[in-house]
Amino acid sequence: xxxxxxxxxxxxxxxxxxxxxxxxxxxxxxxxxxxxxxxxxxxxxxxxxxxxxxxxxxxxxxxxxxxxxxxxxxxxxxxxxxxxxxxxxxxxxxxxxxxxxxxxxxxxxx
Length: 110
Prior knowledge:
This protein has 110 residues and is α+β, with helices and mostly antiparallel strands. The chain has four helices and three strands, in the order E-E-E-H-H-H-H.
C-alpha cells in the first residue's frame, strides 16, 4: 500500500477545524484533525509531499521523517507539530482500516 495524496479541508464550527485526509492506492482513506492556525494547511501540504509513495502503515518512521524534515522550523512544538500530529492521526486511521480493526484496538483496547 502506498500514499497517493494528502489533502486538507477546513470546517467551520465553534472554531475552525482542519481535517487531514490521506488517500492510498488501495482506495483506503484515513482522517486526522488538527487545530486551525494561519498557514497550517500549507504546512500539511508540504509535509504531505514527503509521504507520497510511502507505506502509511509505517507510522513511527513517517512521523520521524516529518520531524526531521521540519527540524529547523520548530518541529517539537507549535504549528509544525500541530500539522505533524494531524497527519499522524490520519496514518493511524489508514493503518487500522488496512488491518480491519478499530483504531482503539490497535492502540491497546478500550
